Fold:
Amino acid sequence: MRFPAEPFRIKVVEPIRFVAREERARLLEKAGLNIFLVPADSIYIDLLTDSGTSAMSDQQWAGLMVGDESYAGSRNFYRLEKTVRDITGYRHVIPTHQGRMAENLLFSAMVRRGQIVPNNCHFDTTRANVEAQGAEALDLVIEEGLDPVADHPFKGNVDVGKLDRLLSANGRAKVPLAMITVTNNSGGGQPVSMANVRAVREACGRYGVPLFLDACRFAENCWFIKEREPGYAEKSVREIARELFGLADGCTMSAKKDGLVNIGGFLAFNADALEEQVVNLLLRVEGFPTYGGLAGRDLEGMARGLGEVLDEDYLGFRVGQVRHLGETLDAAGVPSVKPVGGHAVYVDARRFLPHVPQAQFPGQVLVVELYREFGIRAVEVGSLMFGHKDPQTGQDVYPKLDLVRLAIPRRVYTSEHMRYVAESVIATHLRRESLRGLKLEYEAPVLRHFTARLREFEPAAAGT
Ligand SMILES: Cc1ncc(COP(=O)(O)O)c(C=O)c1O
Structure:
């Protein structure tokens, strides 16, 4: 067996529809070839995101029934607080409705105009929340982390030399905190090693700069440490997680990933002085600190999910399922980012469709084709998402990579579903030369990929 089979059996089923190809083509046309605008119930396998799409366990569903909806002092909050303290060791636990609110609270309390926040790679909401304070969000991932074919076990690592230079040139006055995202979502879901987190901790410690983890996928990261980092094979993932969190001063968390829930998050930290500031803001924008924008039942689901995600049978299956999809595509010659990350396989659309120029959105071409022919929803992470006009020169600026992300929801799809996905991508690769580029017909001034409308070039014009 290439990876462990599902360590769960199915008790409740949710039907998914395989609508006819003509209907899919019609829906795509109506959506302006934008997959965000296609209704989800017309999608067969939805790999748009791993965030908020997990299947909850019977224990989590049962937990909803013991939700205590008291405005203040809900028992579910105390349970969540204990769970997070046990896993992280942090004293203060502030629930939030999702990860970006934890970021908003943290940066509002700690970051000021003109300052710099370093990270391996900021996720887009993290970047937006840093920038909303008038500060700079600086990515310092190692060189290998930017190279789609470099094979490195911890491509999410921070370049500690660059961090050290930043800190020595600016000091704490200019760098109010440093962050590390585990795993590094914007860099392909690549893990960060314990040795790297320790080195960052030491560098930050020399300048008195606090370190926070963006911990959305902490359990997957810890599983990679157990698998790949010398000295960790015999440790439990729970022990590894405790060591990891122990190297930082706090964390932001979107529990929509490794919390195994559909909504929820938290901010956790040790500093007593930070608590008052955060709570005062929380009261204004989110709610009382024992519910933080969530129902009591959501807090219970999150507490139970955080326990379940550390189950090593689950993690072995989870990371193995994603890896197996990546390796199957690789064996068939489909170009993708190496090595496979924790939550998604990233197909390299520019190498997949070398005849489609960046200006014609090769990633989106592949996304459209996977839905029209196979009912699969993937997402473009490339020229459509990040391309823009340079405000000074008016020239089009394109990102370094055009990727198509196949994000795998947790505990949702079976190995047969994944085989279907692999065969569909491979079949598309075999007929790649027949695919045509796309032309943008409408774009919004910001975050254009959500609402853009496109159309296919006529055969003669494509690739020109
Ligand atoms: C690394 C990372 N940080 C932060 C967030 C934001 O979390 P949320 O969507 O719960 O606001 C995400 C969401 O995808 C993420 O992947």
Remarks:
- The first helix runs from residue 21 to 30.
- Residues 51, 98-100, 123, 125-126, 181, 185, 214, 216, 254, 256, 265 surround pyridoxal-5'-phosphate (CB under 6 Å).
- DSSP finds 16 helices and 16 strands in the chain.
